[in-house]
Amino acid sequence: MTTPATSKPAAPAQGTPPLPLTDTVLEALAITKRGVDELLIESEFAQKLARSEKSGTPLRIKLGLDPTAPDLHLGHTVVLNKMRQLQDLGHQVIFLIGDFTSMIGDPSGRNVTRPPLTKEQIEVNAMTYFKQASLVLDPSRTEIRYNSEWCDPLGARGMIQLSSRYTVARMMERDDFTKRFKSGTPISIHEFLYPLMQGYDSVALKADLELGGTDQKFNLLVGRELQKDYGQEQQCILTMPLLEGLDGVDKMSKSKNNYIGITEPANTMFAKLMSISDVMMWRYFELLSFRSIADIAALKAEIDGGRTPRDAKVALGQEIVTRFHSAQAADDALADFVNRSAGGIPDDAPEMTVDGAPMGIAHLLKKTGLCASTSEAMRMVEQGGVRIDSAVVSDKALKIEAGSFVLQVGRRKFARVTFTA
């Protein structure tokens, strides 16, 4: 198998005295560690920063993402934010699109074999991935790579040689593999290839640091070990926590409907951010805000001193909306939120004509699309979350007659309805 030709200085000789850590290096280390779950190995990374400062050579920092879905939410941006911070420190960030590994399917955290994506699905998803990531990263300073560049040329011989560099026993150290094996749940051979191929990406790119979520730790460590096997200086690894969703419990996920999409309308994005709890707000500041640690600490001190938490939440909401839309959109979103909070109807509320009067409230809510099902509509009525022309609906059996009115579900869903027989 041919080792990728990308050049990089060899690892420092054993016994080389460590470089002193300047104030600049210590500051960079503090920025790197902000909000992280783990930085392994911190002393090694500090020396990488020191050598980078001394030589003027930026570190190569890798983030690999498989385009398994075309849209990103704020949970995905936690690690992208860290990449941007490192980019702003002057290092070379590499946005790696796993077009090859997507066809294997990452088994991380899975208790069943994950079906691989087709080449066509991958191409469609990859088209929007970097465009959305560029809302966080500076695209002019980002190296974009596809791991098919070095994975496709391996061929059968190269894949067998790569597989010989890692043992089954080491692979079974993965918690999810161990659980599946003990429970008798099938593990396909190709799933063992995923961490190997992700690790080989680090060899190909000569990565100094690889980022990922906490669920990626095993795969990142495989890259570190393969680099050692190839005679390279080992990468450090940095894992970021998984951001909780709007419910404050489960990680942000579209399947759990607790997410904030980065391409959602500004008003929706702002309103969702305003709905998080006052406690969870600081978690979002830590992982999503570009404000300095000192600025956030000062703001928290003001809140602890009696300032209303709503002010901090507004500041967070406007920062995030500005990043993904514009400052004007953030101002408009705040005005819209204030209007809604006062019982006003948003200007962008959809207008629709619906027939079938008279009709039960639950069926009408489903027909207008304000609720996904009649059972959800019933729950919303029970919780006092349904209004007609600002009046709360409390009767689940209410029949709605023909007419024109504004339907509201929760704080954010509105519709101007013309209801006919």
TrEMBL record:
Domain RNA-binding S4 stretches: 359-418
Family: Belongs to the class-I aminoacyl-tRNA synthetase family. TyrS type 2 subfamily.
Annotated InterPro entries: aa-tRNA-synth_I_CS, aa-tRNA-synth_Ic, Rossmann-like_a/b/a_fold, S4_RNA-bd, S4_RNA-bd_sf, Tyr-tRNA-ligase, Tyr-tRNA-ligase_bac-type, Tyr-tRNA-ligase_bac_2
Catalysed reactions, as listed in the record: tRNA(Tyr) + L-tyrosine + ATP = L-tyrosyl-tRNA(Tyr) + AMP + diphosphate + H(+)
Species, as recorded: Massilia violaceinigra
Lineage top rank: taxon: Bacteria
Keywords from the UniProt entry: Aminoacyl-tRNA synthetase, ATP-binding, Cytoplasm, Ligase, Nucleotide-binding, Protein biosynthesis, RNA-binding
Residue positions of motif 'KMSKS' region: 251-255
The protein's enzyme class: ligase
Molecular function GO terms recorded: ATP binding; RNA binding; tyrosine-tRNA ligase activity
A GO term from the CC aspect: cytosol
Protein name: Tyrosine--tRNA ligase
Coiled-coil boundaries: none
